[in-house]
Design a protein that fits this description.
mainly alpha; 9 helices; elongated
């Protein structure tokens, strides 16, 4: 169970719900019409944006978000170093005996290519191609929640317009103005609530999980090529640890640069 996701969502619901309860009448925040516009519109817009084949992955994506655990990178490095020791001592062909004990299909495929005597460049190309397909699948999953995060506030605004139109059409009857105004405001609340507490955070979580998995796969490629080159296991271990630290640092610098670019754009627009 991914506790950070569960605790974060639960905390958001409890705090926002608690604030509503402390404010008085909770019933005024319940609107079937607003739910139909925001939730129904978001679902309809998402269905129109993606194929049923892609939408069928939503339960799997949610399972990954809520139950997925962090990858044990140290264990992966230990496995690669163990393979390096065996290959250096007994030869690459002996690694075939270890293939059945490897749980990761990606690493298993890489070891099989090495055992089969595939050229290093071809091994790298095949593994990177498989990695690119995996990144594509992950990107599609994330884009589903990104789209829902974009659509829910938009349909909240649509609901606001609907409520205002209803309110303005009943100006001759003051008793009906409240219902129209309530619909106008509550739909905006629903859209912002769903987008900022659920859809956008879930999309970001998928992005983080994907980045972690891609980094581990790149680590595997580096380790396999080093094993195939017959490098010293101790050198391989140090190289993989250095590779991991370098890649993590590179991601941090990239994120910092993106933030600087975004800040510059905002300053430029304000100017």
């Amino acid at each position: 169970m991914n506790l950070s996701v569960v605790i974060g969502l639960a905390l958001g619901v409890v705090l926002i719900g608690g604030a509503i309860v402390l404010g008085g009448n909770v019933i005024i925040f319940l609107s079937v019409q607003s739910i139909m516009i925001v939730l129904g519109g978001t679902i309809a817009g998402t269905m129109a944006s993606f194929s049923f084949k892609e939408l069928k992955k939503i339960p799997t994506l949610l399972n990954i978000i809520f139950t997925g655990s962090s990858i044990d990178v140290d264990n992966i490095i230990d496995i690669l170093v163990g393979l390096a020791k065996k290959a250096r001592k007994e030869g690459l062909l002996t690694l075939e005996q270890e293939i059945e004990d490897i749980d990761d299909p990606y690493l298993e495929k890489g070891v099989q290519l090495v055992v089969d005597g595939t050229e290093p460049e071809l091994v790298k190309d095949i593994m990177e191609t498989r990695l690119s397909y995996m990144e594509g699948r992950h990107s599609t999953g994330k884009s589903i929640f990104d789209k829902m995060g974009q659509l829910s506030p938009a349909f909240g605004m649509i609901g606001t317009l609907v409520g205002l139109i209803q309110m303005l059409s009943e100006l001759d009857d003051p008793s009906k103005l409240g219902a129209g105004m309530a619909t106008a405001l509550i739909t905006t609340l629903y859209g912002a609530f769903l987008a900022n507490l659920f859809f956008i955070p879930l999309a970001n979580k998928l992005k983080m999980i994907s980045q972690e998995e891609v980094l581990v796969k790149e680590l595997m490629i580096e380790g396999l090529l080093s094993i195939q080159a017959g490098e010293n296991p101790r050198i391989i271990e140090e190289k993989l640890k250095a590779f991991l630290a370098q890649e993590s640092s590179g991601e941090s610098e990239s994120e910092a640069e993106e933030e600087q670019v975004n800040e510059s754009e905002v300053v430029g627009e304000n100017a």
